[in-house]
Amino acid sequence: MNGKQMKKYRSRCKGLVLGTLVASCVILLYCLSTPQIHFSLPEVPVPYSCAHHPSQLRSKPTTNSSQQTTGQTCTPKVDIMFMKTHKTASSTFLNILFRFGEKHQLKFAFPNSRNDFSYPSLFERSHVKDYRPGMCFNIICNHMRFNAPEVAKLLPMDTSYITILRDPAELFESSFHYFGRLVPFTWKIPSDYKLTEFLRDPHFYFDPEGFNSFYLKNLLFFDFGQDNTLELNDPRVEEGIKFITDHFQLVMLVEYFEESLILLKDALCWEMDDLLFFKHNARKGSTVSKLTPELRARALEWNAIDWKLYQHFNQTFWKKVDAYGLQRLAEDVAELRRRNAEMASICIEGGGSVETGSIQEKVMKPWQPIGEKSIMGYNLKKNVDKVHRKLCRKMLMPELQYLTELGVNLWLTKLWGHVRDIINW
Ligand SMILES: *[C@@H]1O[C@H](CO)[C@@H](O)[C@H](O)[C@H]1NC(C)=O
Ligand SMILES: *[C@@H]1O[C@H](CO)[C@@H](O)[C@H](O)[C@H]1NC(C)=O
After folding, report:
1. Is the CB of residue 69 below 6 angstroms from any atom belonging to ligand 1?
2. Cβ-Cβ contacts under 8 Å for 355 (sequence gap 6 or more)
3. d(CA 115, CA 401)
4. What is the C-alpha separation between 323 and 317, in angstroms, rounded?
5. Whole-prediction pTM
6. Nearest to residue 307, comparing CAs of 383, 241, 367?
7. What architecture is domain 40-327?
8. Helix and strand counts by DSSP (H, E) for the chain
9. Model confidence over 333-387: pLDDT tens digits?
């Protein structure tokens, strides 16, 4: 090695060490940014409703809503708790909620300095940006670990609680792909097919005490504030499911996303216009692995609580569909799809999603999982007519950029992003 090469080698090493050091510091900062002080906040009751015209809210009977014909008037529900579960198309849904919130000038309860409420700590009101007891918020929708009493003290009495679930085998696969690198015990799994190897003998690899281990076992149940490591026959599993049933008025399913939105529209008295969406945070086809039937069975067995949870809410979902009317639902879904396709042709360059490298505007580039560039995004058409320009932009904007636009200061998340850009991770 000559002197010049040596020098180059040295400076590379230095860069690497420095990069690693900075990355570690940022990770540490991120973890420590969870408010550690648990001061007790005074309990000032929140108004019954935070709507601008609360008296009008009663114009629609809350019972028998499914029998309502479209001709009857009702007032849209604006007080909403959306429990954002992980890897469940919830970024797509957030885009819908953001636009709804802007349309009705609603007040969001946002987190501070990052895009979640100090997940995986349980939610506390003190995590909400600029929170003061007695304040009135309309919508809360960022990632949190659900904590019913604290949420109840933050939101009005008539808040609609909604959430979304996904087939646990698919969810597990997606979570493994997206978060696997954040779970240290996966680092020592030999083989290029870590997921397959893990599912071959999960009890051997899984460490319930391991850092971030919840991402890889019953993540849904965990997100709802429950214990994800219970045995399936533990009575607390049934209790947990009942707890979710009692708290959430609508549990949507990723596999029936459009159907879910129509049920939501019915439950909250929204309009079809409110439901328009483009898919966000979708993975490039080549990185979406198709689970073999055997792996799927193993994933379900490994995530048995989530599977039970999912089956339970699959049943309640189809009961709601029956009540709404299967034919009526099919017609509404067809209309929604037609409207979405129409919007895609108006807004999206090339009509569909592209890889992040092909996205021209920085503001349209989606956040990527660590060590990947697999999340697809969109290019806004250049010559969108004036009527649609604003809507197109908002519909296409990735979650973090939209949050920033809504006034959330994401300095920690962004700093982390810059460091990753620099070390190219
Ligand atoms: C709901 O509707 C059914 C028939 O459509 C009616 O018999 C029933 O009394 C209604 N229930 C309430 C609480 O209004
Ligand atoms: C969900 O419910 C439907 C209707 O009852 C049933 O056909 C389907 O097999 C269920 N899916 C799962 C995953 O349980």
Report:
1. no
2. 284, 373, 376
3. 11
4. 10
5. 0.83
6. 241
7. 3-Layer(aba) Sandwich (3.40)
8. 15, 4
9. 999 999 999 999 999 998 888 888 888 888 888 887 767 778 888 989 999 999 9
